[in-house]
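From the methods appendix. Each design record in this collection lists the tokenized structure first, followed by the designed amino acid sequence. Records were kept in a plain field format so they could be parsed without special tools. The example shown here is representative of the layout used throughout.

RECORD:
FOLD TOKENS (309 positions):
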């Protein structure tokens, strides 16, 4: 989902910043904000579709406990090699909050949103559905309560006997990338690193027709605006976008960011076309980190990988 406008960034930074306080003198953070503010949805969106069964041997269908109840997910099966493996939780774009199909269907390299490059490289994967998606409980909240769903999915993944709990990553694209940035801003999240492809600085910028909250309400906007919380992120985080994609949003966030934990990488290509080659390259870095414990994304190397696809 590509967004051209970024004028709201100025309003958001004026409205709140990482050194502000909330409530009774509490240090401002996304976690503190969420404790004080409960979203007020203007519509109750649900998908109401069953979760398809994945092809045998690709992924297992499962469920995990979230604050709204059991939510469906796909997860890589146990390799049965007696080892603990790295895993990446991946959220695709869009607000449907559902899973089913894109995760295993072959796609053209110029628009491969499956992130299957991780699986094919040997990195385990989990695709969680979120509240209101498929036939799940709850309603779609537009990147608010979904933050807690992703954290709950990570807790599920940590307990899998074949997953290394210290090598769990979070990745997402477009709306999934925006959500990933908000999760990164949560205190004590369990991720080794977060990789956000093509996010925007504020969920409200996707437009009133796409989100279930009042895009004129400053509190609703603030709790879904990654640009406000960048300087509170403690997890190594990379924001990546193609020069022909949501690059204005990336640059707006980069301009406001003062946090060395958050890096921004611009690569040749568009919002969708960079995914296949970039994810294949990141997968190699994850596998290397599983051996030496060091995860780092080099901007020049990533640009080279996307250019030579």
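DESIGN:
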């Amino acid at each position: 989902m590509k967004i051209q406008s970024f004028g709201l960034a100025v309003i958001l930074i004026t409205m709140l910043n990482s050194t502000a306080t909330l409530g009774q003198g509490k240090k401002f953070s996304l976690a503190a904000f969420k404790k004080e503010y409960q979203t007020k949805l203007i519509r109750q969106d649900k998908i109401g579709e069953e979760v398809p069964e994945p092809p045998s041997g690709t992924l297992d269908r499962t469920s995990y406990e979230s604050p709204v109840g059991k939510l469906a997910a796909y997860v890589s099966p146990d390799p049965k090699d007696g080892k603990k493996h790295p895993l990446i939780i991946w959220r695709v774009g869009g607000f449907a909050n559902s899973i089913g199909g894109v995760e295993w269907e072959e796609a053209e390299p110029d628009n491969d949103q499956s992130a299957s490059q991780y699986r094919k490289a040997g990195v385990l994967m989990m695709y969680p559905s979120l509240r209101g998606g498929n036939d799940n409980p709850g309603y779609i909240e537009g990147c608010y309560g979904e933050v807690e769903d992703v954290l709950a999915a990570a807790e599920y993944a940590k307990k899998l006997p074949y997953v290394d709990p210290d090598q769990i990553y979070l990745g997402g694209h477009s709306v999934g990338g925006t959500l990933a940035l908000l999760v990164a801003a949560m205190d004590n999240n369990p991720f080794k690193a977060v990789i956000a492809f093509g996010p925007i600085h504020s969920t409200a910028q996707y437009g009133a027709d796409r989100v279930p909250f009042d895009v004129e309400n400053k509190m609703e906007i603030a709790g879904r605006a990654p640009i406000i919380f960048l300087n509170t992120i403690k997890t190594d985080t990379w924001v990546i976008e193609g020069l022909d994609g949501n690059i204005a949003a990336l640059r707006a966030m980069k301009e406001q960011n003062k946090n060395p934990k958050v890096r921004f990488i611009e690569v040749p290509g568009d919002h969708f076309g960079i995914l296949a080659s970039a994810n294949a390259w990141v997968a190699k870095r994850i596998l290397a980190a599983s051996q030496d414990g060091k995860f780092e994304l080099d901007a020049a190397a990533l640009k080279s990988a996307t250019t030579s696809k």
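APPENDIX NOTE: The first helix runs from residue 8 to 15.
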